Amino acid sequence: MLMLALGFYYLVRRIHPSRRTIPLLVAIWLSVATSSPQWLRAQIAFDVNATAPARSVEPYGLMSRLPGSRFVEVHLDTSALIPSSASRLVQETMVRVVSRHEEVLVADYSPRTEMQSEVFGTMQVSLDSERIREASLQGMAGYPGVGSASGYANQTEVGHQTIHFAKKPSLELVTASGTIERHRGVFFKARRSSQLTLEGARQFRILLEVPENWRAELLDVSFDAIGLESVGAKRSIVLANQRFVVAVYQENDEVAARAAANYIKQQSNLIQAARSYARTIEHRNFPTPFHRLGAKLDIYEPEIPKGWFEALVYQPGMAYHISKLSPLPVDLRVTIMNYLDKKMWIESLCGVEEAASPYRIGSNAPLDIGDVARR
Fold first, then answer.
1. Is 211's pLDDT higher than 50?
2. Virtual torsion, Cα 340, 346, 351, 357, nearest 10 deg
3. Phi, psi for 116 (deg, rounded to 5)
4. Which domains are delineated in the chain?
5. What is the pTM for the complete model shown?
6. Phi-psi map region of 222: left, alpha, beta (phi>0 left; psi -120 to 50 alpha)
């Protein structure tokens, strides 16, 4: 921010603006100053594997907390892209992984919390001390008629002592991890240091306790880049955030693997369709500026629910009845129906009894436009 202000001052001195151009330059400077953090946030990117096989394991020393449960191990391959312009601002990254069902618990995870120091080995400390002891004696004697005499005696003793001992160096937090959501999830936090970089690939291992008949699961994975909004700022904020859904399936289970692959495919189709119809949806919600003003004043409610996309993708089950999404374009509604069909299919494989759904669970045939129109 300081460099930006100095650049603006230099520009003003060079062009000698008039009174009319000064407000324009100030507006340009404010626009650039407020938009630069947004530009940095857009450049920070995270990624994680879309599907992950779960391998059945028999962990030694771990006891089941749920009756009729077993353990599976999942590996998540994550990556972080932090541009050089934001590397000085980002202080730490955090990854959260949460299951959508209470019957799926986190039993173990790695990496664990780790403390490091820039000092290798122990520190050797020396304490030097000196002891000085001084004694003096002064006296006077005399004999009448002869005279008097005086004497002085001084003795000084100097002692030097050196103590050597080993001291452990101070440690700083580098990585932290732990459970969240009553063991339904786990978090991993990495803090920037001289020995750890926040950018690049990193793998996490999660041991899940699942029902005996578990075959597949959807995990919500979120990434946060935490740091300073500008150089010299004192308060840390979330600079960037991204959310993903990872489809986990039982290893060597072809049906579960196909359900996970189909879900990821339909989710990708939904994302592309929502982006292509973004302007159409915006116009249908706010056809005039008065509708937009009414929404800000809470006197107008858009026909299409706010946050419909996030509710469909990041909430279990249907989230919305299809009638609430009827104002959406027909092609987009067809994509939503196909997506919900695959979503309900994979959620039915998690070993938890779900409420009955009006959609055809596990059907491989997508619904046509006429079917959506009739609904």
1. yes
2. 20
3. -135, 165
4. 42-80+95-129+154-221+242-252 (2.60.40), 253-375 (no CATH)
5. 0.72
6. beta
**Digit-coded pLDDT (tens) for 37-52:** 555 556 899 999 999 9
77 Cβ contact partners less than 8 Å away, ≥ 6 residues apart: 48, 49, 201, 203
- Do 94 and 236 touch, CB atoms closer than 8 A? no
- Alpha-helix runs per DSSP H in the chain: 2-15, 21-43, 84-87, 254-276, 278-285, 289-296, 308-314, 330-347, 369-374
The tokens describing 5, both together, are 């202000």
Contacts for 36-40: CB closer than 8 Å, 24+ residues apart: 36/4, 37/229, 37/230, 37/239, 40/83, 40/85, 40/86, 40/89, 40/239
Per-residue pLDDT at 243: 96
Could you tell me if 87 and 123 are in contact, meaning their C-beta atoms sit under 8 angstroms apart? no
Q: Between these two residues, 4 and 176, which has the higher pLDDT value?
A: 176
- Alpha carbon distance 94, 197 (integer Å): 13
* Tokens linked to 163: 């103590």
Q: Which two tokens stand for residue 182?
A: 């009553």
The angle at the Cα of 284, spanning 280 to 285, to the nearest 5 degrees, equals: 120
